[in-house]
Design brief:
The protein is mainly beta. It is built from no helices and eleven strands. Strands 2, 4, 5, 6, 9, 10 and 11 form a seven-stranded mixed sheet that branches. It is elongated, with a radius of gyration of 14 Å.
């Protein structure tokens, strides 16, 4: 079993910054993809950013130039630096990991989410 624990959410004014963290622990051989998704009230969960084990990053168009994803492979941790936040960034942010277990199976895990609220 693998656990993902997010932290770093909170309330910030428009134009401000937050840094989210997500630490993975448990039965991990390696982690392939690590990413962030978000879900605003009344909307579907959507991808925000992800990073492969090789360091390739992908960003949603609406966060490009404002958000930066990074990872510390030694700590099995992924970060999301969010700058120039807008009220429309308000959502619950979820961490996602594609984990290779010690038995070499690939499994998909989600964190419980952290609330980000941007006030205007």
């Amino acid at each position: 079993q693998v656990q993902l624990v997010e932290s770093g959410g909170g309330l910030v004014q428009a134009g401000g910054s937050l840094r989210l963290s997500c630490a993975a622990s448990g039965s991990i051989f390696s982690i392939n993809g690590l990413g962030w998704y978000r879900q605003a009230p009344g909307k579907q969960r959507e991808p925000v950013a992800d990073m492969t084990s090789g360091g390739t990053t992908t960003y949603a168009d609406h966060v490009k130039g404002r958000f930066t994803i990074s990872r510390d492979n030694a700590k099995n941790t992924v970060y999301l630096q969010m700058n120039s936040l807008k009220p429309e960034d308000t959502a619950v942010y979820y961490c996602n990991a594609v984990v290779v277990t010690p038995s070499l199976s690939w499994e998909d895990y989600w964190g419980k989410g952290t609330q980000v609220t941007v006030s205007s």
